[in-house]
Amino acid sequence: MTTINATALQHWISEVFIQCGFTAENAKISAQVLVEADLRGIDSHGVARLSGYVRLIQKNRINPNPNFTVSHRKKTMIHLDADSGIGLLSAPYAMKLAIEATHDFGSGWVGISNSNHFGIASYHSMLALEHDYIGFSMTNASPLVTPANGKQRMLGTNPMCVAIPTNQETPFVLDMATAAAANGKLEIAERENKSIPNGWAITKEGENTTDARALKNGGMLLPLGSHKDGGFHKGYGLGAWVDIFSGVITGANFGPWVPPFVSFLDPLPNLPGNGIGHFLGCWDIDGFQDKETSKNKMDLWIQTLKNSIPLDQNHPVLIPGEIEHYLKQKRIEEGIPLVDAVCLDIEQLSKQLNMPSPL
Amino acid sequence: MTTINATALQHWISEVFIQCGFTAENAKISAQVLVEADLRGIDSHGVARLSGYVRLIQKNRINPNPNFTVSHRKKTMIHLDADSGIGLLSAPYAMKLAIEATHDFGSGWVGISNSNHFGIASYHSMLALEHDYIGFSMTNASPLVTPANGKQRMLGTNPMCVAIPTNQETPFVLDMATAAAANGKLEIAERENKSIPNGWAITKEGENTTDARALKNGGMLLPLGSHKDGGFHKGYGLGAWVDIFSGVITGANFGPWVPPFVSFLDPLPNLPGNGIGHFLGCWDIDGFQDKETSKNKMDLWIQTLKNSIPLDQNHPVLIPGEIEHYLKQKRIEEGIPLVDAVCLDIEQLSKQLNMPSPL
Question: Testing the interface with A: which of B207, B291, B302, B311 to mutate, by most A Cβ within 10 A?
Answer without folding.
Answer: B311
